[in-house]
């Protein structure tokens, strides 16, 4: 397998900062496209993985799975794209393509395990896969996504993870007109949940621990905003919601939200708290309620999400940074000091010496 050297930003160890390094990318195979990366979003998963907080990182690690770029080369058998197309790459760059879930378009649940955009075994090279904090990436055309022409490219990058992570459960639970939906947490995921649920036609109720976020939640599209620390405000919504999307990754009382569901209501967790969340039996028994989880979507659903966002002019609220600011951005991410997603201008890497 022929390879080429590409500039990237990554880390050789959990305790080391991200810095410039060279990686090897395969040259295009017949079904590959080579993408010049323009923008890459910064996901909290990037930080967890770079610092080995989930205890499965393989080093060196180059994070980044919210990629928007322009195709500069295509393989001989590529039919879906051409040179010059603006495209996206999300959390997956391959899967087995043969298991029941891959055949159903649920590649995120591939039974042998999907090939993630970074920190997965590379099928072609004896290395882990390397992500979007790099000049370019080579991906099979079947795992590449079209970007709607009307969307701002930088603000579209976070849709490849935060957008599909919130769209997928809302779509799965048939959210639309006549549904009252709660969004818990107004951050990188939650702000997208508010925008998407509102565009789907739902009545959106945002829950926050901070009264200072009321106006912000309304700006994002929430019909109502509830201070979750106020027991009286919470009690007013008891048994009122059809669905709740919980985007909080910190420890919190999940029962307080399960109590807000109507009979047959569902709560889907997309945040990833470090410790288990105790669920009281009567929180679900009384009302035949469901507590579930969700992650990203498959390739077809991710394209559906992008097309939906294009039709409704939905993008993420972002703060643009240069790649040289990534370590500072990680520290700010830990403090919640971003509204609501960092996006890297990858020209800052290409122009770096």
User: Whole-Å distance between the termini?
Assistant: 28 Å
Average residue pLDDT: 96
**Count of discrete alpha- or pi-helical segments spanning 4 or more residues:** 12
Uncertain spans: none
**Backbone shape:** globular
CATH architecture annotation of the largest domain: Alpha-Beta Complex
Give an overview of the whole structure.
The protein is of the alpha/beta class and 353 residues long. It folds into two domains: 3-161 and 316-350, Medium-chain alcohol dehydrogenases, catalytic domain (Quinone Oxidoreductase, Chain A, domain 1, Alpha-Beta Complex); 163-293, 3-Layer(aba) Sandwich (Rossmann fold), CATH 3.40.50. The protein contains twelve helices and 17 strands. Strands 3, 4, 5, 8, 9, 16 and 17 form a seven-stranded mixed sheet that branches. Strand 16, helix 11 (326-334) and strand 17 (341-345) form a beta-alpha-beta unit. The protein is globular, with a radius of gyration of 20 Å.
Please outline the helices and strands.
Blueprint: E1 3-10, E2 19-26, E3 32-42, H1 44-50, E4 67-74, E5 86-89, E6 92-94, H2 100-103, E7 115-116, E8 136-140, E9 145-146, H3 153-156, H4 162-172, E10 180-184, H5 190-199, E11 203-208, H6 214-220, E12 224-227, H7 231-235, E13 241-246, H8 254-258, E14 261-269, H9 281-285, E15 290-293, H10 299-312, E16 318-322, H11 326-334, E17 341-345, H12 347-350
Parallel strand pairs: 10-11, 10-13, 11-12, 13-14, 14-15, 16-17
Antiparallel strand pairs: 1-2, 3-4, 3-8, 3-17, 4-5, 5-9, 6-7
Helix pairs in contact: 4-5, 4-10
